[in-house]
């Protein structure tokens, strides 16, 4: 990354692994779990959060010296809500079926703890460019978990990726299905998302024992 | 009356805030280490949901919906302000939480002490905004039902956090693999509890059908639950999976 100094590059790199918003900071779980049954929805959600968090961080950072600290939560909520309305309207206009799939979870980006968390912890104390990078980094970290969970749930649950069949046709018994492979319906039901995230946490903490909690 | 009872049990068990739609997971995971604090937060959530959902219902009905402004006069009947609902709902919630905090502090210091630190947290709890947004998308019809919905969703959330807090207090004495300790095992336990709660899916029979019909509906619903395991229907069914979920949110009577 020639463009970025080392310090700035870390703003993007850290949230991807050792300071991941979902698996380490435990923020923004709600939406991460509910919409990951399909890969497409996960990707769109990740992009939506990236837009809101990147732009929101910049706006808050630009206003950080004029926001009275007593009403900062309300100001932050208004900024997020405005950006989310933009996302929601764009989705409704250009990808209506998808916005039906995501249903209320687009609106729930407003209360996604990652967003408020980054505003409070970073944007209120840092300059525009660094806040922007921080927003992008954290939403990438959020997105990567979403995509991993969505990938496994859609692949194992429906045997498709982005809606295209990967293992062959389960009805015609072609491809992998001709050997007796079955889709795992368990991966489609909502609680499976929790278990997949639990396993991701398990893998991540096995690889980096420094992250292990006391209890 | 029956629809109230149905909505009540549906919101607590079938469409449980935590196990079915994953709302309020952040505070659910963060504040569930001890039963006492979990009870405090749970009570605060019930309280705030029961206040904000009916309020937002009024806003939705008389301000935001398509044609909602017709009470101002016929020339306003064409306005559809529903794109403003996010910002209005969250503003209502944030103000109500502040207001509730002030009122409770003034009139019941003991309650304030037990809820106190949790109230500000709640403004950004997804369960609260989610309650209002689901109320809107399920088109709940009357003010009473909206209040019922807020209250019972809150109770469902309360039950969930109480259960996980109790389990987490006990699991401290178990020999959990080190990388799973804390967050990881909590996720997996919640997943297992969610699977357990899915079995409530066949509990309600829908509307005021006779008991015999009710029996039948249960039978019809039961195979739906396991339908994913039948490979023949796989592809077509999976696409309709989300749609079906959507419908189940919408057809609350």
Explain this structure.
The complex is a heterodimer of chains A (215) and B (253). Chain A is mostly helical. Chain A is built from 8 helices and 2 strands; from the N terminus they run H-H-H-H-H-H-H-E-E-H. Chain A has a two-stranded antiparallel ribbon with strand order 1-2. The longest helix of chain A has 31 residues, at 128-158. In chain B, helix 4 (85-107) packs across helix 5 (109-115) and helix 7 runs antiparallel to helix 8 (143-171). Chain B is 69% helix and 0% strand. Residues 207-253 of chain B have low confidence and may be disordered. Chain B is built from 11 helices and no strands. Chain B has one domain (2-204). The chains are: A mainly alpha (215), B mainly alpha (253). At the A-B interface, helix 2, helix 4 and helix 8 of A face helix 2, helix 4, helix 7, helix 9 and helix 11 of B.
In brief, what are we looking at here?
Chain A has helices spanning 6-13, 29-34, 39-63, 72-94, 96-102, 113-121, 128-158, 191-207; strands spanning 160-161, 164-165.
List keywords for this structure.
heterodimer, A: 215 residues, mainly alpha, two-stranded antiparallel ribbon, 8 helices, 2 strands, 2% strand, B: 253 residues, 11 helices, 69% helix, disordered C terminus
Spell out the blueprint of helices and strands.
The complex is a heterodimer of chains A (215) and B (253).
Chain A: H1 6-13, H2 29-34, H3 39-63, H4 72-94, H5 96-102, H6 113-121, H7 128-158, E1 160-161, E2 164-165, H8 191-207
Antiparallel strand pairs in A: 1-2
Helix pairs in contact in A: 1-7, 3-4, 3-6, 3-7, 4-5, 7-8
Chain B: H1 2-14, H2 25-30, H3 35-64, H4 85-107, H5 109-115, H6 118-122, H7 126-137, H8 143-171, H9 183-198, H10 211-226, H11 234-250
Helix pairs in contact in B: 1-8, 3-4, 3-7, 3-8, 4-5, 4-7, 7-8
């Amino acid at each position: 990354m020639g463009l970025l100094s080392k310090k700035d590059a870390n703003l993007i790199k850290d949230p991807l692994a050792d300071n991941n918003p979902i698996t380490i900071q435990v923020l923004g779980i709600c939406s991460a779990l509910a919409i990951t049954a399909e890969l497409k929805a996960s990707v769109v959600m990740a992009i939506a959060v990236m837009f809101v968090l990147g732009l929101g961080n910049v706006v808050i950072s630009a206003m950080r010296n004029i926001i009275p600290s007593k009403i900062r939560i309300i100001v932050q909520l208004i900024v997020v809500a405005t950006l989310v309305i933009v996302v929601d309207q764009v989705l409704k206009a250009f990808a209506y079926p998808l916005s039906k799939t995501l249903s209320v979870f687009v609106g729930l980006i407003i209360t996604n703890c990652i967003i408020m968390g980054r505003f409070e912890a970073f944007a209120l104390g840092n300059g525009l460019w660094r806040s922007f990078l921080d927003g992008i980094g954290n939403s990438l970290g959020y997105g990567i978990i979403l995509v991993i969970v969505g990938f496994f749930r859609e692949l194992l649950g429906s045997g498709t990726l982005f809606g295209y069949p990967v293992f062959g046709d389960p009805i015609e018994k072609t491809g992998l299905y001709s050997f007796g492979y079955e889709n795992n319906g368990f991966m489609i039901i909502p609680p499976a998302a929790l278990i997949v995230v639990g396993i991701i946490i398990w893998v991540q903490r096995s690889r980096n024992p420094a992250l292990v909690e006391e209890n | 009356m029956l629809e109230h009872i149905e909505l009540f049990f549906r919101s607590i068990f079938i469409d449980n805030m935590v196990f079915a739609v994953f709302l309020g997971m952040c505070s659910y995971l963060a504040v569930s280490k001890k039963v006492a604090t979990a009870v405090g937060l749970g009570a605060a959530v019930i309280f705030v949901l029961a206040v904000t959902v009916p309020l937002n219902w009024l806003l939705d009905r008389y301000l935001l919906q398509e044609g909602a402004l017709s009470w101002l006069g016929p020339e306003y009947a064409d306005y559809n302000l529903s794109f403003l609902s996010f910002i209005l709902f969250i503003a209502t919630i944030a103000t109500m939480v502040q207001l509730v905090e002030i009122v409770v502090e003034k009139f019941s210091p003991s309650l304030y002490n037990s809820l106190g630190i949790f109230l500000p947290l709640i403004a950004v709890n997804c369960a609260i905004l989610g309650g209002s947004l689901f109320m809107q998308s399920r088109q709940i019809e009357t003010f009473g039902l909206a209040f019922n919905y807020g209250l019972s969703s809150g109770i469902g959330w309360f039950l969930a956090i109480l259960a996980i807090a109790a389990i987490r207090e006990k699991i401290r004495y178990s020999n959990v693999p080190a990388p799973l300790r804390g967050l990881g095992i909590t996720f997996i336990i919640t997943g297992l509890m969610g699977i357990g709660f899915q079995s409530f899916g066949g509990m309600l029979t829908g509307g005021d059908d006779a008991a015999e019909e009710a029996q039948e509906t249960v039978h019809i619903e039961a195979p739906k639950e396991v339908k994913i395991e039948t490979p023949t229907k796989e592809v077509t069914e999976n696409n309709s999976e989300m749609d079906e979920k959507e419908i189940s949110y919408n057809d609350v009577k």
